[in-house]
Amino acid sequence: MAVDEKQGEDAVTAEKSYPMLEVRRHNSRRSCWFVVHGKVYDVTPFLDEHPGGDDILIDSAGRDATREFEDVGHSDSARAQLEKLVIGVLREPTEEELAAAPADLAEEKGAGVGATIMKWALPLLLVLLAWVVRKYTK
After folding, report:
1. Beta bridge partners of residue 89, listed in sequence order
2. In this structure, which topology does domain 3-105 adopt according to CATH?
3. Cα(34)–Cα(67) distance, integer angstroms
4. pLDDT digits (tens, 9 = 90+) for 115-135
5. CA-based angle 95:98:64, to the nearest 5?
6. Integer Cα distance of 87 and 32 in angstroms
7. In angstroms, what CA-CA distances link 23 with 7, 64, 90?
């Protein structure tokens, strides 16, 4: 790759940034984006060429796929191919983007500590309750 091409890619990456809210919207065969190491990739044009099949890419669409990408142990060649598909970098959403986000993205909206605690505390409370009932009803 020529130096000018590399600088051009870096310029595009530096100029474009996307919040995870936007990446999550691109989770289908028609538009397949994901994040690897903080960079946003549009892999839609690569779906039919992926050696492992398109299902793997579609399963990772709309989310951070860094772990899956690294777990497979991709070659330097595969990493170079991926870099050709970079469209920007991941960034935090703005207040306006958060306000305009659909309710199903509440987790990204910062649903708060209370919601996070309830997500884990409620199942634990139910298990504890079941144990107490079983112990004292014998």
Report:
1. 17, 39
2. Flavocytochrome B2; Chain A, domain 1 (3.10.120)
3. 12
4. 556 667 778 888 888 888 888
5. 115
6. 12
7. 24, 9, 9
Tell me, yes or no, if the pTM score tops 0.70: no
SS3 assignment, position 76:
helix
Measured in residues, the chain has a length of 138
Give the whole-angstrom CA distance, residue 12 versus residue 98: 24
Q: In the block, which residue shows the tokens 């708060």?
A: 112
Q: What is the pLDDT of residues 15-49, one digit of tens each?
A: 799 999 889 999 999 999 999 999 999 999 999 99
Q: The tokens of 132 are what?
A: 């107490």
Distance of CA 20 to the CA centre of its chain: 7
Residue type, 107: E
Q: Can you tell me the distance from the alpha carbon of 85 to that of 60, in angstroms, rounded to the nearest whole number?
A: 15
pLDDT digits (tens, 9 = 90+) for 55-95: 989 999 999 999 999 998 888 998 999 999 999 999 988 88
Q: Taken in order 104, 110, 113, 117, is the CA torsion positive or negative?
A: positive
- Distance (Å, whole) CA 23 – CA 78: 22
